[in-house]
From TrEMBL, chain A:
Full protein name: Dehydrogenase
GO molecular-function term, one example from the UniProt record: iron ion binding
Organism classification: Bacteria, Bacillati, Chloroflexota, Ktedonobacteria, Ktedonobacterales
UniProt keyword list: Molybdenum, Oxidoreductase
UniProt organism field: Dictyobacter vulcani
Domain Aldehyde oxidase/xanthine dehydrogenase a/b hammerhead intervals: 20-135
InterPro entries per record: Ald_Oxase/Xan_DH_a/b (IPR000674), Ald_Oxase/Xan_DH_a/b_sf (IPR036856), Ald_Oxase/xanthine_DH-like (IPR016208), AldOxase/xan_DH_MoCoBD1 (IPR008274), AldOxase/xan_DH_MoCoBD2 (IPR046867), AldOxase/xan_DH_Mopterin-bd_sf (IPR037165)
Gene3D superfamilies (UniProt xref): Aldehyde oxidase/xanthine dehydrogenase, a/b hammerhead, Aldehyde oxidase/xanthine dehydrogenase, molybdopterin binding domain
TrEMBL record, chain B:
The species this protein was found in: Dictyobacter vulcani
Alphabetized SMART domains for the sequence: CO_deh_flav_C (SM01092)
Residue ranges of every copy of the FAD-binding PCMH-type domain listed in the record: 1-177
Protein name: Carbon monoxide dehydrogenase
Keyword annotations of the record: FAD, Flavoprotein, Oxidoreductase
InterPro entries in alphabetical order: CO_DH_flav_C, CO_DH_flav_C_dom_sf, Diverse_Substr_Oxidored, FAD-bd_PCMH, FAD-bd_PCMH-like_sf, FAD-bd_PCMH_sub1, FAD-bd_PCMH_sub2, Mopterin_DH_FAD-bd
Length: 816, 292
């Protein structure tokens, strides 16, 4: 069968609706009699709760319910530990409302339900909480200090987990190598900041004894399962719907956020629908964050620039709790080798508690850190040996004939870190051309003569995507000829309604516009996990494909019967089904769907047409013979990958730095990406563009700055700087396609890719632009003030940096 | 992020608004474009009992090119000023400063007067008013007074305006025809408040030296800052590199010592202020020479 839609730049099915303002987000849901909730949050990063007085709040007219921890009864349980791990020896998760102690600014303390959100917020001001402040752990440095205060009284040294992984014999190689360098590299916190914050509307239907929740989440099915267990309801009496979701970027894969339990609790208590919408101020202090890590890395290389061994000892800031286990640092640990043939590698990570918002994956999920470390290493090798930066990388690449490549580490899904396919040199060659790499040195020299400082940076990454355990899909032909597809993965902007439609369209011979894709509604599809880890298109897409293949077979079998032909001769094209060579005598898919239901009653135009056609009469015997086990043209498909597939890519950029002000602008940006077979290049490019923008934000604009009492100083969009269109350069995206052998369509994930190498690339470009001052970037994110400070230091010292232990200079004047 | 309860009043004539202020005093706040006030209400940093919306006072909606100055009524949007033909023709420096304010959507609502009264030290318009020795016309139920820019801004978001007064008009003097001018600023993103910025006007003699100069800064202290000392240094010079260097150096001392935040330490602000001085004077000087 000729593939027609797979791989084509099909316009998005979701756009006409979204662009006309017909999207439906949680806050658009307005039910009769609905009440509104607000959350009282801790103003302290660490404190004992001595007393809570809610009397005045409860007495405020219009207030229906005020909840504190002691009102929750058996629902007062720590949130489940989603992903346990043997190295996570001291997991701690959060209560829906804090009972005796708060451990970060923003932790939920009380929940108010009132006639309006305005009143609910008025009531919050009337709740009187007596806190007794405790010593605060505000940074990894404090958390790891010998006499550090403890975030959890019973967790010594604040160590939640200690994860050790190694391959080969790094100690020996490091001891005997010709060149060994040790550096400290640091990455600080940033956050997902989806345009739509979190939110939930919960409704208890007394007549149906059913709980329905609309939640802005990436994981409705796991939430449905959890709510059923928490509230002792059968799973089919809980429906969770993720309607249109305005961005998640990982932060919405977390469950349970307290409000996801408190809002259903309140609706069941009050018998009225309850809405809670997270505002931006809350989002800054209550939605999970990421990125804080401190790496002490030691690496060895030979005179040819071949990397021999790496020992990376790092601290990971996990915040106040570990709801999502240690997925982020595991990914960091496994992603560090990247595209290189690293045979000797030791990774030693401690996940430390701090009095800050808990950490769970945010787009990139530990990979930007790993790539930052590894790409800093590659640039340093080039610098030390006076070699070309790209040449050093080329010398270390895993070659195309070496796949599958076993990195030798256990990945986040518990399976091997085994690269299924790739062609790293091909992507680098494309990048070189697109950046006009060979002429850059000349351009740079010319610019310097005019006092302009250009720098070129690159960042290479390999990204584990498409992990299990599984996803599923249901495909059904409707009597009107349209095809209904349902899957458990949600969409928070990924274009599932388009790419899944393309996959089905190819099998059933229809246009993608004729396929209706339902995502994120537990009533529409009941099995699955969610959209995260760059897995939806690959894992759910494969399931959609398998289901569509089954439906195609059913169509062919039924049509063969009706046309008295053989199934192999049945063709599907342009919404019609016919015998090869005889398209004039065709049934529409809809007519066939009617025929697939052996009912006496038929309705409508199609039914009349069918009656007039000379089709084979029904066979005697049961209407549904054993070979047609069910009525209708529908099927479920499930796909469970053997292990993740590994996408890869390399980005390059040219920047200009103004050394007088530390201001930086991007002049050119190229991303070469390999996610196996592309379902839709437009969609892939969109994903990469968004990722790059987020990466540039994370490298140069967005910073979560905490003071030493762990108060967030950048807690509004005036201070947490999301780049706008004005700050993001045009981005050229080029593709390499090395298909994955692991799934039927040869796909790999792309969702997180764009963001991953940007910090590494930015550091690389800054080093290059500022090479006259011998600047070596060892921290991310940067900002002009800090860059200016680094330049000032370099201007003062003028000396070349020493090679031995090197740390990011302590900020001299509170330049946070 | 919802405001606490307040009473909303929308008078149609100025006297009614003044009467309301007279009754409510400090319990009332005037609402103009709302681009600064509404966020403050939403985060409950201000909680007035009364909100007096002056947007319906049609008498405050005018742009008037008078002999000595441009007069802008209190409810004129920044965007209307920006698009006004007379302003475009006769006050290009105002246009240059205004287009740095936020984004078009914000300028569509925000007023010139609102920005002046809000008195954010990092805002462009208060610094412009200081640079030009402009005036603020304020009315209360007891009468009208005219306040010089120099006397208006007293501290961070604080002015000498009385709670019972409404600013009715902003007066921006014209520049001499031979003057050169410029407004430049350093921001993290397009449309942000400035980390540091400067506005300058220089007037050349026919012989090509500097006859007079004005320079003011924003984002560097609790109020807009006029660089009087620098202005004096420039007179009689040709603004060569040495003079610009000296001016930049002098500008550093105008930066408030403890003005340090997560985006800029005072050291960094000093560096930016020095650089802004060099650039704004260079551009202003080039512009006036181009004219003659
Ligand atoms: C995203 C964003 C970016 C921005 N960026 C910038 C920027 O780069 N530069 C900049 O300068 N500004 C910026 N602003 C602020 C904008 O310029 C505001 O419009 C301006 O500061 C206030 O004008 P307003 O008409 O909106 O006043 P309002 O918000 O209505 O009022 C502001 C204050 O002035 C008082 N007030 C208003 N009018 C009068 C009057 N006639 N008499 C007495 N009191 C009065 C009010 O009571 C209130 O206290 C930005 C705003 C936003 C939302």
């Amino acid at each position: 069968m000729a593939t027609r839609w797979f791989g084509a730049p099909v316009q998005r099915n979701e756009d006409p609706r979204l662009l006309r303002g017909q999207g439906l987000y949680v806050d658009d849901i307005d039910l009769p009699g609905m009440l509104h909730a607000a959350v009282l949050r801790s103003p302290y990063a660490h404190a004992k709760i001595v007393r809570i007085d809610t009397q005045a709040a409860s007495n405020l007219p219009g207030v229906h319910l005020v909840l504190t921890a002691t009102d929750l009864g058996e629902v007062l349980e720590p949130s489940p530990l989603l992903i346990p791990h043997p190295a996570l020896t001291h997991p701690r998760t959060q209560l829906p409302l804090a009972l005796h102690e708060v451990r970060y600014v923003g932790e939920a303390v009380a929940f108010v339900v009132a006639d309006s959100r305005y009143l609910a917020e008025d009531a919050l001001e009337l709740i009187d909480v007596a806190y007794e402040p405790l010593p605060v752990v505000h940074s990894l440095a404090t958390a790891s200090a010998p006499d550090a205060p403890l975030v959890h009284e019973d967790v010594q040294g604040n160590v939640a987990a200690h994860l050790l992984q190694s391959v080969g014999n790094p100690d020996e190689v490091l001891a005997n190598a010709p060149h060994v360098i040790r550096e400290t590299l640091q990455m600080e916190r940033g956050a997902a900041m989806p345009m739509e914050c979190r939110g939930i509307v919960a409704r208890w239907d007394h007549y149906e004894q059913m709980l329905t929740c609309w939640i802005s989440t990436q994981a409705p099915i796991p939430i449905r399962n959890g709510l059923a267990a928490i509230f002792h309801l059968p799973e089919h009496k809980v429906r969770v719907i993720a309607p249109d979701v305005g961005g998640g970027f990982g932060a919405k894969i977390m469950l349970f956020y307290p409000e996801e339990i408190l809002t259903p609790f309140a609706t069941m208590r009050l018998g009225r629908p309850v809405k809670w919408i997270e505002d931006r101020r809350e989002n800054f202090i209550s939605t999970n964050q990421e990125r804080g890590q401190l790496h002490e890395v030691e690496y060895a290389f030979d005179d040819q620039g071949v990397l021999l061994a790496v020992r990376d000892v790092f601290l990971h800031d996990t915040g106040a709790y570990t709801p999502y286990g240690i997925i982020v640092p595991i990914i960091t640990s496994c992603s560090l080798p990247g595209p290189y043939r690293l045979k000797h590698y030791a990774s030693d990570c401690q996940a430390l508690y701090t009095n800050k918002v808990p950490v769970s994956p945010y787009r990139g999920a530990g990979r930007p850190h790993a790539v930052f470390v590894m790409e800093r290493i590659m640039d340093r090798i080039a610098l030390e040996l006076q070699m070309d930066r790209l040449e050093v990388r080329a010398r270390n690449f895993i070659r195309p004939d070496e796949f599958p490549w076993d990195v030798g580490l256990v990945y986040q899904d518990g399976g091997p870190t085994r690269y299924d396919s790739g062609n790293y040199q091909a992507a680098l060659d494309k990048l070189k051309l697109a950046l006009d790499y060979d002429t850059f040195a000349t351009r740079q020299a010319e610019a310097r003569v005019q006092g302009r400082y250009l720098g070129l940076g690159i960042g290479y990454y390999v990204e584990g995507t498409s992990i299990g355990p599984y996803e599923g899909a249901h495909v059904r032909v409707e009597p009107d000829g349209r095809v209904f597809v349902a899957t458990g993965v949600t969409s928070q902007g990924q274009s599932h309604q388009t790419v899944f439609a393309q996959i089905v369209a190819d099998q059933l011979g229809i246009e993608p516009q004729a396929v209706l894709v339902a995502t994120g509604d537990t009533q529409a599809f009941n099995w699955g996990v969610g959209t995260f880890a760059s897995r939806a298109a690959t894992v759910a897409g494969s399931a959609v494909h398998l289901a569509a293949v089954k439906v195609r077979k059913k169509i062919q079998a039924l049509a063969a019967e009706l046309f008295e032909a053989s199934a192999e001769d049945i063709e599907l094209a342009e919404g019609k089904v016919f015998v090869k060579g005889a398209p004039q005598r065709a049934l529409t898919l809809g007519q066939l769907a009617i025929k697939a239901n052996p009912l006496r009653y038929t309705y409508g135009e199609s039914a009349r047409t069918l009656a007039a056609m000379n089709l084979a009469a029904a066979r005697p015997g049961p209407a549904l013979p054993p070979e047609r086990d069910a009525p209708g043209l529908e099927a479920d498909g499930f796909y469970s990958p053997p292990h993740g597939s590994f996408a890869s890519g390399v980005h390059g950029a040219i920047i200009e730095v103004d050394p007088a002000t530390g201001m930086v602008s991007f002049i050119k940006y190229v991303a070469v990406h390999d996610c196996g077979h592309l379902i839709n290049p437009l969609v892939v490019e969109g994903q990469v563009h968004g990722g790059v923008a987020q990466g540039i934000g994370g490298a140069f604009f967005e910073r979560l700055v905490y003071d030493d009492t762990a108060q967030l100083l950048s807690s509004t969009f005036m201070d947490y700087l999301i780049p706008t269109a004005a700050e993001i350069p045009d981005i050229t995206v080029e593709h390499i396609e090395t298909p994955s052998p692991l799934n039927p369509l040869g796909m790999k994930g792309v969702g997180e890719a764009g963001v991953i190498p940007v910090a590494a690339l930015f550091a690389s470009a800054l080093d290059d632009a500022l090479s006259p001052w011998h600047i070596r970037i060892r921290e991310m994110p940067l900002h002009p003030c800090r860059l200016h400070e680094l330049l000032q230091e370099a201007r003062c010292h003028k000396a070349v940096l020493p090679l031995a232990t090197e740390k990011p200079g302590a900020p001299t004047e509170n330049c946070h | 992020m919802k405001p606490p309860q307040f009473q909303y009043c929308a008078p149609g004539v100025l006297d009614e608004a003044l009467g309301l202020l007279d009754q409510c005093g400090t319990d009332a706040k005037i609402l103009a474009g709302g681009q600064s006030l509404i966020p403050l209400l939403n985060v409950r940093l201000v909680a007035p009992l009364y909100l007096v919306d002056i947007n319906r006072v049609a008498a405050l909606d005018y742009i008037d090119a008078r002999e000595n100055h441009l007069a802008v009524g209190a409810i004129v949007r920044q965007r209307s000023v920006e698009q006004s033909p007379v302003v475009r023709q006769r006050h290009p420096l105002l246009i240059e400063a205004i287009t740095y304010i936020g984004h078009m959507q914000i300028r569509n609502r925000g007023t010139l007067a609102g920005s002046i009264v809000h008195a954010d030290p990092a805002a462009e318009l208060p610094a412009l008013l200081c640079c030009l020795d402009g005036e603020i016309v304020a009315r209360s139920s007891t009468g009208e007074r005219i306040i010089k820019a120099e006397q208006f801004f007293t501290d961070y978001l604080t002015t000498t305006l009385d709670a019972r007064e409404i600013v009715t008009e902003i007066r921006l003097p014209w520049l001499p025809p031979q003057a050169g001018w410029a407004c430049i600023e350093f921001t993290r993103r397009a449309g942000d408040y400035a980390l540091a910025g400067a506005i300058a006007v220089v007037v050349p003699t026919p012989a090509g030296t500097c006859q007079s100069a004005r320079i003011s800064y924003f984002g560097i202290a609790a109020t807009p800052v006029r660089g009087y000392e620098i202005e004096q240094m420039l007179i009689g010079t040709t603004l060569d590199d040495a003079i610009l260097q000296a001016a930049a150096h002098a500008a550093e001392s105008l930066v408030q010592d403890d003005l340090s935040d997560i985006h800029a330490t005072s050291t960094y602000r000093r560096a930016l202020t020095a650089e802004a001085t060099r650039r704004v004077l260079r551009t202003a000087w080039q512009r006036c020479q181009n004219r003659s």
